[in-house]
Request: fold
Amino acid sequence: MLAGSAFAGTDPARATTQRRDPALVLEKESTEQISRKQQQKILKYNFEKMKQDVDELAALAKALQEELDKTTENMLSLQLVEKADKIEKLAKRIKSNAKGY
Reply:
């Protein structure tokens, strides 16, 4: 009766379900490995995209400088304002993507 009392509160059916099924463990590990590979691909893609965005930002900044050199203090071109807006949006996108890492 003492030996039975140690397990009196547990159901034999539950005891078998509490054991780790090797097939389920293997499946979970495979899923985690796939997820890691996918995460790595996503990180690589995001990094490459960020590099492209930074290159575009540099080109826009250079174009903005050239546009500013063409204008006078009394007259700013609409293209100058549009390029500044593009730069601002692109910089914000780069910043938010960088925070995601």
Remarks:
- The CA atoms of residues 45 and 79 lie 31 Å apart.
